[in-house]
Amino acid sequence: MQTRFLRLPEVKERTGLSRSTIYDMISKGLFPRQIKLGIKAVGWVEEAIENWIIAKINSIRLTEKVDQ
Questions:
Q1: pLDDT tens, position by position, 8-59
Q2: Which are the contacts of 65, defined by CB distance < 8 A and separation ≥ 6?
Q3: What residue numbers bound the domain in which 49 lies?
Q4: How far is CA 57 from the centre of its chain?
């Protein structure tokens, strides 16, 4: 897979999270940090976001199994 940076609108779309939630989770160490791309631009490594989504899904599935 080729490394790609995602800008905030795409990160929001993929995760379903709001801007404020994303930055709050970053400050708590619960979400991948953004990378400075330029003076006024940041992006997230696509693979880091995909890994976070997969981990979140796995966590939910594990919780559902424990609750059964």
A1: 999 999 999 999 999 999 999 999 999 999 999 999 999 999 999 999 999 8
A2: none
A3: 5-67
A4: 12
Check the CA dihedral 43-45-48-50 and report its sign: positive
> What's the structural domain count of the chain?
1
Find out whether 31 and 25 touch, Cβ atoms under 8 Å.
yes
Given its phi and psi angles, is residue 65 left (phi above 0), alpha (psi -120 to 50 degrees) or beta?
alpha
Task: Output the pTM of the full model.
Answer: 0.87
Q: Are 12 and 19 in contact (CB under 8 A)?
A: yes
